[in-house]
Amino acid sequence: MTRSRSHIALRAAAFSACILLTTAAWAGQTTSTADAGGSLQTDAHDRKPMNIVFVLVDDLRYDAMGFLKPGLNTPNIDRLAKEGVYFPNAVVTSSLCSPSRATILTGQSTRNHGVVDNHDSSEEHLTFFPAYLQQAGYQTGFFGKWHMGADTDAPRPGFNRWVSFKGQGTYFPTDLLSPERIAAGERQMLNVDGKPVQQKGYITDELTDYAMNWLEKGRDRSKPFFLYLSHKAVHSDPVPPARYKNQYADLKIELPATMPNTPENNAGKPMWVRNQRNSWHGADFPYHTDRSMVEQVRDYYRTLSPVDESLGRIMAYLKKNGLEKNTMVVFYSDNGFLIGEHGLIDKRNAYEPSVRVPMIVWAPGTLPKGVTNPAVVRNLDLAPTFLDVAQLGKPAQMEGKSLLPLAEGKIDEKAWGAGDFVYEYYWEWSFPQTPTTFAIQRNRVKYIQYHGVWDLEELYDLKADPDERHNLINDPAWLDIKITLRKALFEQLANNQGQHVVPFSEKTSTGLVSRKIGGSRAADFPDDWYIEPNLPSKMNGLFPDSAAKAKADAEKRSYRP
């Protein structure tokens, strides 16, 4: 759905009325209510509400931090981990920019918030958690990539300060402009509180400048603050500033062992995976270029360095102004990223490098120091956590739960009770290489199925096989687990209306479908899908899997449940 700037303004006006009704309906252990006059009442606590800094990086791998990757120079990120709580098993429920960001902002899964891809999506029905913070007295500022499509960069409800841009934005002010337009003085634009302003410098630095100016001069210092710094970096194609152009020139880059196009790596993999390697999102034809994966990874790391600098500026400000003991900093990524695993790049799929993201929570006055917490936490859990930090309850529509007690060490991984991790990605016509993907992970066993394609399912024992090399989907020993997870996945993919639906956006072009001349050709079907004609077992595939059916298949005889 296309949104005009006036539509956003009308939605903002309506929002101020409906949020009070939503606030009054909050569920769980609430510490706030809406009084008859419509203002938000917060119960008294021993401590005043904490300041919150949320730093969101784009497409950062779960392991792309100095304290995990030898040779990477990320001293400020490393400091957060050394002084805070590191969550190595943080995941996203949809690994794509717009759906993941909508989940972060709403505390809802993609099937419920409805932002299903990177094309323009309606936000009309959504409530973003900063609005609750703002109503509770917080000063709120958003700086960076919003990205619910590219239609508008207009300010959204819930923010006192707004600095953003349309779509993906650009690293430099003159990117994507012709020489003639540059000579005429044109530059890429930012939206600053509803006014168009030319971008002046490198985007990571400039967003940080705006954020620091707001912290230092633009906010009401008598109130707690929520700073949402949403970087474009390190999104493809990552481009570092000149000062980091030659960084990591001698760093040895080890590409994944699952990247080469070999029979061993292809065994058990769906056809779509094998076909994607020669595509826009494939390791053999990345972004339709012939650039080496090693150099792309180096630029990816180089582009992270200004993000680390940005974090250092914020941390220095907190220390200088005596705010360290009453501020929480959360470092997170909207998606993971593959650098050649299974012949793939990008994200979108349900493999580990796609769904896992870096997460560090730092709050010296509240959280323990230097802790690694193994609990599975999701982007669904961020909004309830931020509201909990502000001593507010969880709105009824939010599906996640506050991880604050977990981070504080008041509960352990078992008491946290993460439950199943359910993943959903919906096919995009613009990047048709990856099919609609549903997955569920329980007790470190992952089941993956695909919608609308003629292809294999996948099943992995992540304890024994963390690199997802050995597909157990047809292993008789795993039959019962496959059946159980398949059923659980379907049940949990129901939306809040009890429906099972697959949404989609309007198709306006063929999308990026090209393949490299001389590259790998389309994959063949699995050998065991080729059968003799007229077998008595020819209809067995229509009936639910069971041990009895598997026996009938093996004996090539008819089966009826």
UniProtKB/TrEMBL annotation:
Entry keyword set: Glycoprotein, Hydrolase, Signal
Coiled-coil blocks: none
Keyword match Glycoprotein: yes
Cleavable signal peptide: 1-27
Compositionally biased intervals (Basic and acidic residues): 548-561
PANTHER family: N-ACETYLGLUCOSAMINE-6-SULFATASE FAMILY MEMBER, SD21168P
Family: Belongs to the sulfatase family.
Name of this protein: Arylsulfatase A-like enzyme
Organism whose genome encodes this protein: Sphingobium lignivorans
